[in-house]
Amino acid sequence: MLIISVGGGKGGTGKTFIATSIAHHLARSGKKVLYVDADVESPVSHTLLGIDGREIVEEAKGFLPSINADRCVGCGICVEKCPAHALVGIKGTVPTLLENVCEGCGLCMIVCPRNAIKDRGRIIGRIYSGRKGLIDLIQGEVLPGVKEHINVVLRTINYAEEKFGEYDYVVIDSAPGTGAGVWLAIRRADIVVAVTEPTPLGAHDLDRFLALSKKLGKRVVVVINKAGMGGARDDLIGEVADKHGVEIIGRIPYSKEVLDAYIHGNSVTDLYPDSSVSKELNNFVSKLLRQARK
Amino acid sequence: MSLEITIASGKGGTGKTTVSSFLISYLSGVEKRVIGVDADVEAPDLVIALGRHTEIHREEVFDSEIAVINYDRCISCGTCASICRYGAIDIKNGRPVITPELCEGCGVCGYVCPTKAIDIKKTKTGDMIIYDTKFGKVVTGELEIGRKHSGKLVDMLRMKARSIVGGGYIVIDAAAGIGCPVISSIVGVDYLVIVVEPTPQSMLTASKIYEIGKIFNVPMGLIVNKYDLNREFVDEIRRFSEERKVDFLGTVPYDRSIVEAYVNIRSLIEYAPSSSATKSLREIAERLLSRVKG
Fold this sequence. Notes:
The complex is a heterodimer.
Chain A: E1 2-7, H1 15-28, E2 33-37, H2 45-49, E3 55-62, E4 65-67, H3 77-81, E5 87-88, E6 96-97, H4 107-111, E7 117-119, E8 122-132, E9 135-142, H5 149-161, E10 169-173, H6 180-186, E11 191-196, H7 200-215, E12 220-227, H8 234-244, E13 247-253, H9 256-263, H10 268-271, H11 276-293
Parallel strand pairs in A: 1-10, 1-11, 2-9, 2-10, 11-12, 12-13
Antiparallel strand pairs in A: 3-8, 4-7, 5-6, 8-9
Chain B: E1 3-8, H1 16-30, E2 34-38, H2 46-49, E3 53-61, E4 64-69, H3 79-83, E5 89-92, E6 95-98, H4 108-112, E7 118-123, E8 126-133, E9 136-143, H5 150-165, E10 169-173, H6 180-186, E11 191-196, H7 200-215, E12 220-225, H8 234-243, E13 247-252, H9 256-263, H10 268-271, H11 276-293
Parallel strand pairs in B: 1-10, 1-11, 2-9, 2-10, 11-12, 12-13
Antiparallel strand pairs in B: 3-8, 4-7, 5-6, 8-9
Helix pairs in contact in B: 1-11, 5-6
């Protein structure tokens, strides 16, 4: 079993497009693939894997206090201690809970001297599963307005991890950025794919992403997506890659076929197998797999 | 009091930074007093889109707290690991070990520890930087790589911006996604602009941003960027905005000059003042302004 994590820093560079392309490629060659969508804030991989029917396999529950007004004496300790400032109220009154501010740590319940706070629980996110041929999907989704998205990433990856052993390959699709959610998505990777676009913005965020990957001691390869877009600057990406000592192993051209496949929820390599973008994608994945097995 | 406008999208790469930077350049011309906030603290690149910029101030922000175990006192009872709701404490070789990337700093573990072996220590959240640009100042955050507390840094940036500008406009460029830092970018603002591209994937996550806007009772408007890449879908987006009473602010065509301006580190308004994108964005900015001013 080999774990490939896909990230890159900047949003919209094509992480999900590249990650699903890797999964399609592997499935075509008869490999069993587990696709883990860890971009719980905007999970859309099912649309690109061609999965219609998803099933909820787990509801991620979080802590949410309920205050028993009969027991509460309005001492104000919970209001004072709440690290998220989600409990408000003056001394002598029952505090009011700001649900969308609560981060679900449970400290209020522990510090209450009157045992007046209980966990009424709430759903913070959902974990879905789906299947298309040899590709199995595990996908996390945080509910809008809930601050605990990192917790949902953790639960999703933990849920998926129990099944890793059943597969030849695990592909983990991360959120944009360089924070804790991305850290979780690449932590277990055997190889990390950094997807970027040839612009100063792509280069800037790639720099931070490569720093994170290197901090974790990961092997990383870079792929430039939308290569050749208006005034493309591959050289900027080259500079960042050199700085971190990583290789650029693919250049996927900017093309109408990709957008067309994207909108219609298809794999570009299935829809337009003879296009130059499909050829570049296949070359890239072959190179990636060679590097990964080294 | 300043008027605060946040630009968000859910999915990454739809054009948040393009819209934010344009709005800042436009407002600096017509309203004079404007400040930008780059709330994408995991991948900050708003200033790049504003052209040449100089760093005029940088400070370290220590607003994160992390639990630290004193192993001289720890008796390895495991109470801390069983109570942590963020999965930040694991038992390894019989001893509890904290994963700083997952620690929320809530202090629950310290409260329950029978030997008081856990301290909560302040740690670096990231940097706050102020840049001078041709169009005024921009407050930017750089989250420590792999860190969890992006929402806290966003709160700090917004406070700083208010103290600097004291009136006029604050334009907040949110991160991709819908998680904690995005919520921190939306709470309490005067107007929320949702930037979508004409794909089902973009609409899927934009609708979650809409839900967050509803929760926090913020007036909203919608912009379709790169609308001509999939014209058929624009009507669907328009229907979405009508049904939910979200202002339809306009459409922006796919325009090479946007990328070219980035690549040349120039603002769009200067680089391509008569391009089709600039024209559409100017109309959108006018519409937005009349709406925000009421």
